[in-house]
Structure formats: C-alpha cells, structure tokens
Amino acid sequence: MSRLRLLSAAALLAVAANSHATSFIVTTDSIVGGLKASSDATSDISSSFRDDKIVRAARDDAASFVASEGAIRGVRLESALDHIRQQTPQLNATDAQLAQAILTI
C-alpha cells in the first residue's frame, strides 16, 4: 500500500511541477511580448523624429520628466508630446514612453 501512495505522490508532484513551469512560461512570454511592443513603439518614435527641432529641444525636459517619474513636466516636453501625437495619431504610447524615446534621439 505504501508503494501505491508513494507513486501517487510522485505523479501528483510531477503534474504540479509541470503546471508551474507552464504558468511561468506563459507569464514570461506575456511580459516579453509587452516589453517588445513598447520597445518597438519607442524605436519607431525615435527614428521618425530624429531631426525634428521641437522634439530635440525637449530632451532636457524629457530627462527631468523621466528622472522625477513624471512629476516635472516642462513646457518643451508638453509641446513635443503634442507634436508627436499630432504627427502619429495611431501611436498608443504613454507620456513616459514618449519621454524615454525623446531621450534616445
């Protein structure tokens, strides 16, 4: 009888370990997918606005915005954010993502 319990416990542990591994893989894939989408949007922004004077003038304000976690919002940054959103209305990026993209230019 104890062998049957031992085998049952081993089988149960194997199934539980497999489900945790699958859950981890799904979670990891979701996180990586979200980061890739964010990175793609950021690189699209930085490459298309590389020579834009309004966006380039907002670099210092963008740095302050990122460093203060959004607490400091300069006039040049606000202008650049409006300009970017007017030029690319299909873009769904947060202010923080846009500010980071401005810093990469």
Automatic annotation (TrEMBL):
It holds the Pfam family DUF2388. The keyword Signal applies. Residues 1-21 form the signal peptide. Keywords: Signal. InterPro entries: CHP02448. NCBIfam families: conserverd hypothetical protein. This is DUF2388 domain-containing protein.
